[in-house]
Amino acid sequence: MKAPHSFFVITLVFLCCIAVRPVCAQNSDSTKSAATLKEVPLKEAEARHKPGDTVAVVNGVLITFADFNSIMSGYLKSIVARTKNNVITDTVYTEIVDSAWDRALSDIIIEHEIEKRRLGMSVAEIKTALIASPPDFLRQQFSDSLGQFRSEIMRKALDDPRNDTVVSVIVESERVRLETDRLAASIAKSSITKKGATNAEREQAFAAWLKKAKRNASIDDRRTRFGFY
């Protein structure tokens, strides 16, 4: 076997696409056929509001339309990529708004709770966690021709200063997932009395906690002022 190169370039091969979550509340247009729905060009939908407009205030955190639109853009691009159509109906646009709202609300609540419980992770801790359980896009990059994952090579690549730019992107993109996993484990530990809770039980405990936290959150929701509904 050839000696490994001293410098391994880490490439970003994952796409930041977010699947649209199902919307529970049914819009009055949902019973109409697609042909009768008004179509809204994608660029027009994105340009409806000013970046500095306030969409909401959640637990004291201001959400501007620029913030909100950055989340919506992921859903919009995902739908356009899947349907190969850059025109969306009003109903689909409303569902995207609802999905973006749920995401923004969840992110703020989760981030506050992570800070409250002091579950934040350092860069070194995130690197160690990624090596211990690498996401697929990293596992593939650091597996040999036989499919064997080479953790020691990944460690060298993550610590190489020449990879600092791309590593910082990876670390920050994975931070949310890893810290949220820590939060879910903490919630399960405090809410599930028996030892060795299953993944399903942990997910259920986290979902129940998040639902309650959303219900108790201080929310000034101004979305109706934007003509979303």
Give a quick precis of the structure.
The chain is mainly alpha-helical. Helices cover about 55% and strands about 10% of the residues. It has eight helices and five strands.
Features of the shown structure:
2 domains, 229 residues, disordered N terminus
Structural account:
This protein has 229 residues and is mainly alpha-helical. It folds into 2 domains: 81 residues, no CATH class; 94 residues, no CATH class. Helix content is 53%, strand content 8%. The chain contains 8 helices and 5 strands, in the order βαββαβααααααβ. The strands form 2 sheets. A 3-stranded antiparallel β-sheet has the order 3-2-5. Strands 1-4 form a two-stranded antiparallel ribbon. The longest helix has 28 residues. The radius of gyration is 21 Å and the shape is globular.
Instruction: Indicate the mean pLDDT.
Output: 79
Largest sheet: 3 strands, antiparallel
Q: In one word, what is the shape?
A: globular
Question: Rg from C-alpha positions?
Answer: 21 Å
Strand order, biggest sheet?
Answer: 3-2-5
What class do helices, strands and sheet pairing give? mainly alpha
Helix-strand layout with pairing:
Elements: E1 39-41, H1 42-46, E2 54-58, E3 61-64, H2 65-83, E4 87-89, H3 90-116, H4 123-132, H5 136-141, H6 151-159, H7 164-191, H8 199-216, E5 219-221
Antiparallel strand pairs: 1-4, 2-3, 2-5
Helix pairs in contact: 2-3, 3-7, 4-6, 4-7, 7-8
